[in-house]
């Protein structure tokens, strides 16, 4: 491995592996190191959202992920030991994404798949390799790596810290990580349940308890998550057996075997910056928050996709280096908003006071089924949880509006014919729905942009496109420029130094 690669990635969890894949698939040499001896062995993060699957589709392995995971068909609400409601997730986001569902996919399986995909791209993770020291100055970056007691100096052009909540990269850069920790202690377990495998998500609500049951693997394991009773939070050597009576009573199950058990406290923090010079933070190194909505891992993967294409374009000389200045404002704004919203939801749902008890035992069992009857409520829920609603309207990369589509929006999916298929090129491109203006093809040729013309259909109208309008689409599938005329398009390409991908 080169001691001076264009990019060094520290941390080989889902964020780091995705960042390495984004770079490798675009032909950028990269080194990725991790202090662990290999991929994780516990299920940990579970939910893979639709937007993440859309990114994986661009890389060609979304179908493999879906095949190994478990689509969750419904959520059941239980209160006081009785089922009080069931809401279907079937085709929850139909018409909005090729993946209109929530997928359960254990993180250890997920990581092994990403490692295999990375190896196919010619990159091998350097396990058992830790970042011992990091500094940067006008001359560049100097990273000291430690493996088996031996040290090595690496001088990458850029360095990315994807090394988790206790990030060595963040600490070395002196970037603050403000936030706090919730008082409640949680347990998590992967277990086998008597009576067979449950594919549905079950939310068990109680005045003094909260417990989730969801599928982990096709092999039949289930994930149990819940609050540790206050009386047991200081119990030395707390095990699942200490919790078993309360867990089984609340969830109405009998646990036959426990494969993995742990306790944890939930933190909420966002780094003060996501960039320092030529060093960047992504994933848990930059933000951690409550698990509400299954957003954490997917947000880190979103960071990796955003940063990956921008690094690749600048390394290859296909874009102005100022492109990298847009990474932090685009992703830190979303991270701050996510921490704020998940914090409110988490406090309301887990609060020990009367308000929390009423929410769990009275409001949720009746409010959720009532709201589920409205298509707008189901759409809002899918758009938020699936992360297809994430937009970069305030980014300097975003401009214009045509129809309901604004610069900064995720490119809406228009179904058949599939307007997401061209995104597999991982390149800038122009889209038009219906007959475009005269001369558009020649403008695209002069700008070095592939032009993809789609018929004007009811689905395109429903997705929010304007008939005949052009849309400049970024390599990550977001609309950069909506409805530009010829001068606006050429000026935009000139401003950002956008060049054709060879």
From TrEMBL:
Cite the InterPro entries for this sequence.
FAD-bd (IPR002938), FAD/NAD-bd_sf (IPR036188), RIFMO-like (IPR050641)
Q: Which domain of life is it from?
A: Bacteria
Query: What cofactor does this protein call for?
Result: FAD
Name all FAD-binding domain ranges.
6-340
Which keywords does this Swiss-Prot/TrEMBL entry list?
Answer: FAD, Flavoprotein
> Which GO MF terms are attached to this record?
FAD binding; oxidoreductase activity, acting on paired donors, with incorporation or reduction of molecular oxygen, NAD(P)H as one donor, and incorporation of one atom of oxygen
Protein name in the entry? 3-(3-hydroxy-phenyl)propionate/3-hydroxycinnamic acid hydroxylase
User: Source species, please?
Assistant: Methylobacterium frigidaeris
